[in-house]
Amino acid sequence: MLLGLFYALLSLAWNLGNPAGAAPDEPSHYLRALAVAGGEMTGERVSTQPAARTAEQAAWLRRTTRAVDVPAGLSPEGLDCNAFRPDLSAACQERLRVRPGPSTGFTNIALTQPTTYLVPGVLARVADDPVTAIKLGRLGNAVVSIGLVWMAIALLWDRSAGLRSIVGLLAAATPMVIFVASSLSASGPEVAAGICFFSALLRLTRPSKPRTWNWVVLGLSGVLLAASRTLGPLAVAFHVGIVLVAHGFRRSWALFRSAGSRASLSLAAVAVAVALSVGWEVVVPPHGRLDPSALTAALVPSVKDLRRVFGELVGVFGWLDSPAPVVVYVLWWVALATLALMALLAGGLRQRLVLALLAAGAVVLTLLIAVFNLAQTGFGMQGRYVLPIAVGVPLFAGEVLVRNPGRWRLPLDRWLAPFFALAGGLHAMAWYANARRSALGTDGSWLFMGSSEWSPSTGWYPLAALVALAVLAVSLCAIDLDRQRDEAAAT
Fold it and tell me: What pTM value is reported for the model?
């Protein structure tokens, strides 16, 4: 489907056009991937004093930083030379010297679940230099992440509903989703698994009988979501709870019983993954004593930080130091608000209440996680942590419109095609802004492609062409799916 091609082309452009190491904590995630692929699950304790801004941050880094072995020529030292300095281009990377022999690297995420690091780690170890290694690792992450998004598209697509059946996914897959899917970290697979898992739950509760592969995808995406990061089990429980309330407990039980062993095996796999993930978090990472007064002290800063966190749900790139143009945030949030409002007006009472509960729950969980994170680690919240939960809001809103076309059917069918093209344009603007930051810094000219201080090995023009093709693909997708809907209506 052309929508899947849209995301694949965007992901490739992000991978190649974003300098190696220019994603949140990417060098540390890269070291974690190398270690996992080499059979090193936790690394060795270190006695060095980590650099930190606050005493809380230093204490957290002392507990979590580990030393891991780095293969010859793959040390990522210096790739973060312009991190948190958005006015500087990535040209500083070209002056770095790579260690020729094996070395030791230090990462503060060596105790996170290893599940999502195996594929990128195996690919990274094929390379001879850290830049190529990170790009290959990103490619492995993208194959998993975009593959999950493709499955979500296949699950949600309904020929009779046309664009309405996937507009929720289009709104959920923000530029930030594609950015993390094209970076080397656990966030990309986690967010994509959240999209796929919730989409599978929605598909199973539609009136048409689900197929075996629906249950298979539910199990695969649920296992990956649960085993990806610390908050994975919470995301699984949240999505399951929302769908149970929306569909009704009796109807859900009847659906489970009618599916027989397919449902049992799928849900059992997810339950085992949740248990193993929780067990890892209880046993492996060290846990400091959490003073209740620290939670109280973290409340006000966390509330003030919500605006930044919600901006990151749409997209802030680099080391969260490279925002998209303001118009991207404004138009994306307007589109999300419009989608939610139309769902509230079109849906039944239960659906309205569930949508309100879903949105409120996502906000409350974001605040609670932010408070706990700040109190425990001393570090602020990041939007990507709650993206696997937040994606449920637009996905459910889109599903309400599918099941209740009513009086909104004609206005929706008329305006959805331009909305698809607009989404493609906003993705392109976000990518271009990040490319400018890497090429010249945020103070540089917007016409940077012929005079950049740093450029990818492919050059800028081929990547810009990839993004243009992606926008064309999503625009043609809207036209083609409109035609398919009309044909289905005629028959």
Answer: 0.95
